[in-house]
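Course exercise 7: structure representation. Students receive a sequence record and must write out the corresponding structure in C-alpha cell form. The form below is the worked example handed out in class, using IGLL5 protein (163 residues). Read each field label carefully; the graders check that inputs and outputs are placed in the correct fields and that the protein name is recorded exactly as given.

STUDENT ID: A-19
EXERCISE PROTEIN: IGLL5 protein
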Amino acid sequence: PCGALCSIMPSKFPLWPGPWEAGPRCWPKRFWSELQSLYRSFSHGHLASGLPLHHPTGQPKSAPSVMLFPPSHEELKANKATLVCLISDFYPSGLTVAWKADGNPVTQGVETTKPSKQSNNKYAASSYLSLSPDQWKSRSRFTCQVTHEGSTVEKNVVPAECS
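STUDENT ANSWER:
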C-alpha cells in the first residue's frame, strides 16, 4: 500500500524503483523517512546533517567527470574551431553547462546535448563551442563550467599551449 500521502497527491509521486518498494507509486521506506527528516529540518530553518546523499531512487549522487578538448589541427586547417566538453559519470541527470572566454560568458555557437544514461546507470552529456580559428587564437583561455547539484566544476584550455 502506498499510504495516505500518495493517494492524496498521486501526481507528485512518479514511479521510483527501489529494493524496498511498497507499491508502484511509493518510495522505499528508508528514503521516505530520510525525506521526512529533510523536510522537518528545512521547515525549521536548518540543514539536516548525517543523512546519506541519495536521490529518491536510492542511487547515490555522483559528481561529474569533466574533460575539455581543444580544436584539432586538422579542424583548424579546415577553417573551423570546435571545443568539446565531455561530461560523464554524474547522477542525477540535471546539470547546466556554461562557456567562458577569458572569464566572460559565451552563448553564441554553444550546443549542449541532453544527458543520456550510461551502462553504469549514471549519465553523460557533451557540450560544444563552435568558433572561427581567429576567435580561438585571439583569446587566452576558454572555460567549460559544469554545475551539478549545486557544485561547479571548471576546466580550462589555453590556445597558446595548443599550437
